[in-house]
Amino acid sequence: MADSKHKSKRVCVTMTEQDHEHLTRLAHETLRTRSGYMRWLLHQDFMERGIHNKKI
User: Which of 8, 19, 41, 47 is the most exposed place for a label (fewest CB within 10 A)?
Assistant: First the structure.
């Protein structure tokens, strides 16, 4: 794994085949990997909830 200035954790997600296909298509349409698209979705949700960059 490449070194990064950010500490990282892993998250495992179980989803239906249909959801996986949707995720793959949306990631491809936005020129992201599936993992990158999931990170983007989480980031967007955090921003909408106003919790981005807040210390927990």
Answer: 8
Cβ-count burial of 26 within 10 angstroms (0-12 exposed, 13-18 middle, 19+ buried)? middle
> SS3 string of 14-52?
CCCHHHHHHHHHHHHHCCCCHHHHHHHHHHHHHHHHCCC
Show the tokens assigned to 6: 């950010």
Which among 27, 28, 50, 46 has a CA at the least distance from the CA of 38? 27
pLDDT tens by residue, 12-55 = 999 999 999 999 999 999 999 999 999 999 999 999 998 877 66
- Cα 11 to chain centroid distance, Å, stands at 10
Give the amino acid at 45. Answer: D
